[in-house]
Specification:
The protein is α/β, with parallel strands linked by helices and 344 residues long. 38% of the residues lie in helices and 20% in strands. It is built from 12 helices and 14 strands. It has a 7-stranded parallel beta sheet, with helices on both faces. Helix 8 packs across helix 10 (295-309).
Length: 344
């Protein structure tokens, strides 16, 4: 039997893929989004669902009435955006998340699926695999905000309220709300637009990656799993073989996009974010989660999508497919205040 599910951030990169997947599985979906990225369409169309236009900081207790579950994706969504104003990142990604969850618990929402991140592990370094018990070592405001939110969510857990922490690897893949500020998407977009696979670090850091569709499959599996399998649990989301050094991803893109070459950006330096993750727990605990994508298959999908869209360097490094670029555009155009609230 389908559930009534609130999806926050339903018009973002992941949300645009999540909503139709939940609908196909028979769930009744309602969205909640502030609409920062409504101008950032890519190929494909957005699923239509009833929705609340709401800044996460302005959610009311009554907004949570009547839902069986919350899929909480809304956030300032990556490290450059987090560094733009760390306090805003903590306000939205941590404090507003904790308030949303407390309202959900009061409204007797049974399950709260939180989009956390493997960024929590941050500068862990080394070649060992990190499971869900590994120490956190976040190096950005984004990572810190997710760690703090996880702690508060676990403290809200009761017999009737189950927070579930889904720590996704770095996302990639095509979406109707495309992002090119994530590693495999960026490398592939540069290769298609310029013939160069541009590496912006020294290429040595480890990074786990996971396709956006497989992230959504993980959420669906956690949504439908028995309570005892997921209650107050954290899960690394990805595939065990999908941990790569950045230079290995660049080589996959070079092999995928005809005629391109690998190039290092001027002044490319080591990236302090460096970690490999163990994803065996989700495979063992949630057998319904069956990821479908690999980096090679994803690079091919992106190559074909970018060719179809005739993506340009201006698209990649401009506002449309970079979250910090779009927010700066809205700020400079006077549509957002410095607190990232809509002026009109």
């Amino acid at each position: 039997m389908g559930m009534r599910v609130l999806v926050t951030g339903h018009t973002g990169f992941i949300g645009a893929v999540m909503v139709p997947m939940l609908q196909r599985a028979g769930h009744d979906v309602v969205g909640m989004d502030t609409g920062f990225y409504d101008e950032c369409d890519f190929l494909g169309t957005m699923a239509r669902v009833p929705a609340m236009r709401r800044d996460l900081r302005d959610v009311k207790r009554g907004d949570l009435d009547g839902f069986d579950a919350v899929v909480h994706l809304a956030a300032l969504s990556n490290d450059p955006l987090g560094d733009f104003d760390p306090e805003l990142t903590y306000d939205i990604n941590h404090r507003a998340t904790a308030t949303l969850a407390s309202y959900a618990r009061e409204a007797k929402v049974g399950r709260f699926l939180f989009s956390s991140s493997c960024s929590n592990y941050g500068a862990s370094g080394g070649d060992g695999l990190l499971d869900e018990r590994a120490a956190f070592n976040p190096v950005t405001a984004y990572g810190v905000s997710k760690v703090r939110a996880e702690k508060d969510l676990l403290e809200l857990a009761t017999d009737d309220f189950s927070p579930v922490l889904l720590r996704s690897a770095t996302a990639y893949g095509a979406s109707p709300r495309l992002r090119c500020d994530i590693v495999l998407n960026n490398l592939t977009a540069w290769a298609v637009a310029t013939g160069k696979v541009l590496i912006k670090s020294d290429g040595t850091p480890w990074r786990p990656i996971v396709h956006v569709e497989d992230i959504c499959r993980a959420f669906l599996a956690a949504l439908e799993a028995p309570r005892e399998a997921v209650h107050a649990q954290a899960f690394n989301v990805g595939r065990p073989e999908e941990n790569y050094r950045i230079r290995e991803l660049a080589e996959i893109v070079r092999d995928t996009v005809p005629g391109c070459t690998i190039e290092f950006a001027g002044g490319a330096a080591p990236d302090t974010r460096n970690y490999r993750v163990d994803t065996s727990k989700i495979a063992r605990t949630l057998p319904a989660f069956k990821p479908q994508w690999t980096a090679r298959k994803g690079a091919k999908q992106l190559y074909e999508a970018f060719r179809e869209a005739r993506i340009t360097l201006e698209d990649i490094e401009g506002w449309r497919y970079r979250r910090i670029g779009q927010l700066r555009k809205l700020l400079e155009g006077g549509k957002l205040g410095a607190d990232l609230r809509w002026k009109a």
